[in-house]
Amino acid sequence: MKNFSYYAPTQVVFGADAEKKIPQLIQQYGGTKVLIHYGGKSAERSGLIASIEQSLTEAGIKHLKLGGVVPNPRLSKAQEGIDLCRREGVDFILAVGGGSVIDSSKCMALGIPYEGDVWDFYAGKAQAKACLPLAAVLTIPAAGSEMSGGSVITKDDGDLKWSYDDNLCRCKFAIMNPVRTYTLPPYQTACGVTDIMMHTMERYFSQEEMGITDALAIALLKAVRQFGPMVLENPEDYYLRSQIMWAGSLAHNDLTGCGTIGDWGTHNMEHELSALYGVAHGAGLAALWCHWATYVFDAGPARFARFAREVLDVVEDDDTQAALKGIQAMRKFYHSIGMPASIPELIGRKATDDELQLMAEKCSRGRTITNGNFKKLAYDDVLKIYTAANE
Ligand code: NZQ
Ligand code: ZN
After folding, report:
1. pLDDT digits (tens, 9 = 90+) for 134-157
2. What is the dihedral of CA 274, 280, 285, 290, to 10 degrees?
């Protein structure tokens, strides 16, 4: 168990009437002029944007809005928002959407008080000293950005999808109304279930024994594995939607990571898939995980065997066999919820050799870094995993 510092300052307001608290919370956290930031059309179609605008107007809080954030959010949109907020004197950002909108908001919140190019943070050239306060109204449980310190942004030039982690940009509060997730299409729901499980798995697959942290991780994984398929069958079931929604935050607020640095190899490899093909992050993770697991499990079969037995109900005494059966069970699980388990299933064709090499090159930052910790993956390893996933 490694030393750790646990910090999860976001105030969570959870429930069917949670949105009523938005004006009061914005005032509590010092907002006087708010930018409502959102994505494509879902939050407008559902009436959520209009109802937030109305409640802010009634509370006398000045506000303006900026929509158009795409999944796998772009730096150019955040830069547009930075210019707008500076011009208008915005002092609080309200993200209404999922990981893409929240990450775009974090990027803007970091960029507004910064004199240089906000990409400096994502490129590892600078550390933020200030950040505008922001909050989230979550509409899709998946990325966990509402309670994480991270944001992932794609630079339009070169399709570089890079992340930046900083406690400064944690949301002040997160409004979570499970009813808002009823309109999610099955594919997005399944992508969310996949990402939520993966955030826990990235932390669980570590060479450390973590006792209570492991127990929490396994409980969370078992619950999501059980509730995920059920919510796909019953998309308007409040109880099931609420379980997935809360799991999404718990999976990425570091609770299941206390004592480990985690692995994160699958995530880093996935970011190249979503940067290149524009696919949904959760689906990209499902396309890679079994191939990553097959490649690395021999560095610690006992851990994979425990995952197989306790999360996936595999009955097998031998650790190596249990590990392999667990990987097969995950593949079956992904297919059962409509997720791909390979690159061709993800993008509808095989990736070309050039594309595989480009992704491996970008993922290992020009062969200068390794990825993952369960087993360190250099360029050649990453390329082998992409190649195996391309069969
Ligand atoms: O754009 P709209 O029309 O709103 O549609 C969205 C979008 O197309 C739709 N949607 C959202 N809520 C809906 C809805 N449709 C119907 N009803 C609703 N209630 O869902 C689509 C996907 O939204 P998006 O925000 O892209 O999904 P997600 O939350 O999975 O976020 C993905 C992004 O987060 C990053 C990913 O890499 C990706 O860029 N991540 C961020 C992390 C973080 N900041 O901590 C960690 C994650 O591992 C992840 O990397
Ligand atoms: Zn993720």
Report:
1. 999 999 999 999 999 999 999 999
2. -110
Portions of the chain given CATH number 3.40.50.1970: 11-180
Return the CATH superfamily for domain 186-389.
Dehydroquinate synthase-like - alpha domain (1.20.1090.10)
* Ligand 1 atom nearest residue 102's Cα: 44
Cβ pair 264, 283 in contact under 8 A: no
Between CA 301 and CA 272 the distance in angstroms is: 27
Q: Which atom of ligand 1 is nearest to the CA of 71?
A: 26
Query: Quick one: which of 173, 168, 32, 50 has its CA closest to 92?
Result: 32
In whole angstroms, give the CA distance from residue 26 to residue 18: 13
Residues making up the chain, counted from first to last: 391
Ligand 1 binding pocket (C-beta < 6 A) is 39-43, 71-72, 97-101, 103, 139-140, 142-145, 148, 150-152, 180-181, 183-184, 188, 191, 195, 252, 267, 274, 281-282
**Residues with pLDDT less than 50, the chain:** none
At 332-352, the pLDDT tens digits run: 999 999 999 999 999 999 999
Query: Would the pTM of this model clear 0.85, i.e. be above it?
Result: yes
Question: Could you give the residue range(s) of every CATH 1.20.1090.10 domain in the chain?
Answer: 186-389
Cα distances from 146 to residues 53, 98, 223, in angstroms, run: 21, 8, 20
CA 346, chain centre distance (Å)? 18
The CATH number that domain 11-180 falls under is: 3.40.50.1970
